[in-house]
């Protein structure tokens, strides 16, 4: 079968990003080595990986440490496609600090607890979403599949044991399907699954950030099920080898300080941060900003919050059910003592809060009022700047005005009317309900709204813009 040109372009993009890339520097013989494993294109780990590395925050913190200890430090960065090889290298004592998603974190902790010498600890959070919107089920744009129930008897691509797989299983159960009997899950890595979706070899793809956003942005997929509908938190975090942390506590603290530096940069300059990550990964900046931008799908915060601890507990039964996890002592694995120490007196207050500090602010140019409500606020990206919109209708008007002025709209973002998940405005399904316009990331959610609201109708995006 001839591969679609779009699939070839996608594979070309990910080939340069997949696998392991070892990068470092010419290390002096007396320098103390530290090896960091990260996933450059799993962009919800950027504050412990791509962004942190690009800005040199860890090296700067180690230089400060060296002035006190008299030591020199040499950092080696190892870039992987998924969390599994990072865990394998940590078990072998070859990676000291790593970052990965929630399910891989639990597998990491469980494997580490099999012997005293391999134990690991989750010491900080990177990016999270309290509703689970970092994972999404997508289908081809011309797919006859309109609801999860339509997947009965079909093949779906997912990475076994990943958060995307977990979303699929839980969502199918809620829709009345048996994920083991009614659907055949093909265990595939994200780039393989993306190609399979485009070639028609699978009916749907259930994956984690940034794959759904990338495929939708390219026009190669549309949302079938927004993970935000599940209402189950998903997170990524920083993990260290317990023995390394005991022997090199000051180095791990330096890393966490650097992670806080990266968080502060992303909070204050989200557009610049997204541009840096895009440059480093080859991902479109519009896709990175969807997740990591102001009011992005990912909330970045290094504190380990109670809802995230609870989410890990809820994840354990699923991982046991598919045979990738036997047992884990979460009390021993999750340890916020180091991040608490370096964070300072504000830790408890910030750990209790869940507001996105990369907040979308400004004054809506249509209504001339401050943009405040993240459940309504949208954002328009024109040229090298973005501007906020108070609500979806205002965003449509801003798009219309920009086009009338001959300006090229790079991206427009709007929160889903039901889940609040930020999504591309031009890829959303729009509903007109009286004078109001309501966007939905997926077509099924929009149809459910229309069925429950007399007079509401689905309208094309272009029509919504024109009628705003």
TrEMBL record:
<dbReference type="InterPro" id="IPR015168">
    <property type="entry name" value="SsuA/THI5"/>
</dbReference>
<keyword id="KW-0732">Signal</keyword>
<feature type="signal peptide">
    <location>
        <begin position="1"/>
        <end position="23"/>
    </location>
</feature>
<dbReference type="Pfam" id="PF09084">
    <property type="entry name" value="NMT1"/>
</dbReference>
<protein>
    <submittedName>
        <fullName>ABC transporter substrate-binding protein</fullName>
    </submittedName>
</protein>
<feature type="domain" description="SsuA/THI5-like">
    <location>
        <begin position="131"/>
        <end position="270"/>
    </location>
</feature>
